[in-house]
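Re-run requested by the PI after the first attempt was lost when the workstation crashed. Everything re-entered from the original request form. Ligand of interest: pyridoxal-5'-phosphate.
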Amino acid sequence: MSNYIDLRSDTVTKPSEGMRRAMYEAEVGDDVFKEDPTVNKLEGYAAELLGKEAALFVTSGVQGNQLCLNVLTNPGDEVICETDAHIFNYESGSPAVLSGIQIHPVKGNYGVMLPEDVEEAIRPVTAYYMAHSKVIAVENTHNRASGAIIPLENIAALKKLSQKYNLYFHLDGARIWNASVATGIKVNEYASHFDTVSCCLSKGLGAPVGSIIAGSKDFIKSAYRVRKAWGGGMRQAGVIAAAGLYALKNNISRLAEDHEKAKQLANVIAENPNLEIDLKAVQTNIIIFKPLNSSVSEAQQKCRDEGLLLSVGKTDSLRAVTHLDVTFSDIEKSIEIINKVFL
Ligand SMILES: Cc1ncc(COP(=O)(O)O)c(C=O)c1O
């Protein structure tokens, strides 16, 4: 894919030279014995950054979300989340498979669920014949809502609800770093509202693998056991943890550049009469837009033929994601390609 401008996802990045050096030089040990100093350093640093008692290095965003949900629930419980949420749409049905729980989707606007809609979805505790509402989950930024940011006031209102009904509150913060950089709200402020958080190192931050979950010490102790049961006990994982640590220390503030690149591209798409885009949704690094005069697959192929890789957002839309391996000059070229293909 080296001859292409690859905007399919922010997961396509390759570790930089500095990151690779950190990986090469990482001190390692057996993490199943808790003896990997680099993993321990990463978990300590991440817990501090997120303002939580403890953190755990996990293999992926899906594993992170699902570990959290597993520890917070029992079979027959229900998780309330937004209709377009990743945990509902893109995690292979794993709430059912791994935890015996179901999802209760609530339609939002730009990924934002209204507290009154969430309240309506909460099951009465007396209804033994219904699933038990146990968790409210929020996705910030919201992938399918074009990287939209969930406002802190909405988070605070949902937190209040979770307290009122004695529910847990989970953050799928795969891209919480993007929300933080775009708003100036610190990640620990976002995280402070939630019982559990899951954040990716391998998206905009550019690490080759890994996510972090964080919460109370007791929660992490339970998640540590479940991670092992799910085959996620890693041994000399310091080699990859070093990349995560490098990512957290070097690649957060630069996300502002990715947001700027997304804005440049989105503005051009908005001016093209053959394309439709909701500019209000483009708040971070994800752009979702519709081709009006061709099918999505045809449009995707035509862009590919010109050297630009895009993914499919929803069934009727294309998705472009900016990241640290695309330059401003790549964005200029992407603009030329889009204007040529959608002439
Ligand atoms: C919001 C969100 N959560 C979780 C994930 C899962 O991450 P992973 O692909 O590392 O399992 C993704 C991946 O795109 C995501 O966008």
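Saved to the shared folder this time. Residues 17-250 form a domain with the Aspartate Aminotransferase; domain 2 fold (CATH 3.40.640.10).
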